Amino acid sequence: MTDASRKLLIIDDDAPVRQSIVAYLEDSGFEVLEATDGPSGLAVFREQKPELVITDLRMPGLDGLQVLQALHEDAPDLPVIVVSGAGVMGDVVSALRLGASDYLIKPIVDMEMLVHSVRRALERCDLLVQNQRYRDKLEFANRGLRENLRVLERDQQAGRQVQQRLLPVPLDTPEGYHVAHHIAPSLYLSGDFVDYAYLKQRYLAFYLADVSGHGASSAFVTIWLKHLVSRMVREEGLFCDAQSFEDGANTMLQQINRELNETRLNHHLTFFVGVIDTQTQEMRYVVAGHLPMPILITPEGAGFLAGNGKPVGIFAHPDWEIYQVQLPAQFSLVCFSDGVLEVLPPRVLKEKEELLLETVRDHGDSLESVCSALGIEDVSETPDDIAIMTVIKR
């Protein structure tokens, strides 16, 4: 803003001094109003709304301090420069306490000092106005962010509740199999998911999936996954006969891979899929980028299952090798999502796996015992979901 567009008001009962100040400020480019005493100065201010006031301190009737107080009651941010010949320190302190921007002593020998004081006071006022605008904009933006965050939190809560309600309840079969799971939720909505079913009174099928990323889209993928696998079982007889027992896990992942690529959701999944023929104790399984590998505990010892395979949703036409294990009469199979690795103290993956194997070997007789040994039975808001699924035969 130029000086020519700035309007000033001079209040001084000393006509020669007042007129000299008015003349100099007008020559410096300001629009200048003038008043001969305090009451008329306040009237001019309220009518003309100048951006800065210069007032004498010693005036009959209403003195400069009273004028200053009245001005700031009307306009708290108005810059006011007090000019006086008194030169008493008490007046200076009083004026500054009442909010004066500057205090100059009469006679003003160098009028450029007054011009400098005026410009500095106006610049400070402009900065205050600009800062207030920035604060208003920031507050407006913060209100929008807070509202968006509340919407996001409600969406996340709804997504988590839907996700939790789709998880299965513990399952027991007539042959003595017990399947259960525990999911420790992370800070963010994530995509760990487990499901299992006992089909045709013979085949026990189960999977543990981990959807990449966090947020509502990952949760929606788990919901879609639940629907898709249920449809494959219901309409296509997945894992419901001898042929599907032998190759169903590969078929399942191929169909999920194909449909996931078609959706272009930019998510991929890691999987461990297993199916047990409860009559023969034979297990077939596939591994799709899953880590850590499930741990099988038998009377002879504990060890990670062998196997590897590509994750689902990245490659166009992948194929997954089907692995085969003959299970003993009694065993525990414990499956984890990779979130469990983040709560294990060692820093190296190999050492984490060794600690996990040791812990599960000693406490793998039940889901509760595994969770307690790992310290995650009551854990929530971890960096990533931790999903644990146990398949136990006694």
Summarize the structure.
The protein is an alpha+beta fold and 394 residues long. The protein is 42% helix and 24% strand.
Structure, described:
This protein is of the alpha+beta class and about 400 residues long. It contains nine helices and 16 strands. The strands form three sheets. It has a six-stranded antiparallel sheet, with helices on one face. A five-stranded parallel sheet has the order 2-1-3-4-5, sandwiched between helices. A hairpin with a 3-residue loop joins strand 8 (about 190-200) and strand 9. Helix 2 runs parallel beside helix 3 (about 65-75) and helix 5 packs parallel to helix 6. The termini are far apart.
Q: Percentage of helical residues? A: 40-55%
Q: What structural class results from the helix and strand content?
A: alpha+beta
> Low-confidence stretches at least 5 residues in length (pLDDT < 50)?
none
Residues in β-strands, percent: 15-25%
Question: Which geometry do the CA atoms define?
Answer: rod-shaped
| Strand neighbour order, sheet with most strands | 6-7-16-15-12-13
Helix and strand pattern: EHEHEHEHEHEEEEHHEEEEEEHHE
End-to-end Cα distance? 86 Å
Q: Report the total helices.
A: 9
Strand runs, count? 16
Major pleated sheet? 6 strands, antiparallel
The radius of gyration over CA amounts to 40 Å
The residue-averaged pLDDT reads 91
Topology record:
Elements: E1 7-11, H1 15-27, E2 31-35, H2 38-48, E3 52-56, H3 64-74, E4 80-84, H4 89-97, E5 102-105, H5 111-166, E6 171-172, E7 177-184, E8 191-199, E9 203-211, H6 216-236, H7 242-263, E10 269-277, E11 282-288, E12 295-298, E13 301-304, E14 323-326, E15 331-336, H8 349-363, H9 367-374, E16 386-393
Parallel strand pairs: 1-2, 1-3, 3-4, 4-5
Antiparallel strand pairs: 6-7, 7-16, 8-9, 9-10, 10-11, 11-14, 12-13, 12-15, 15-16
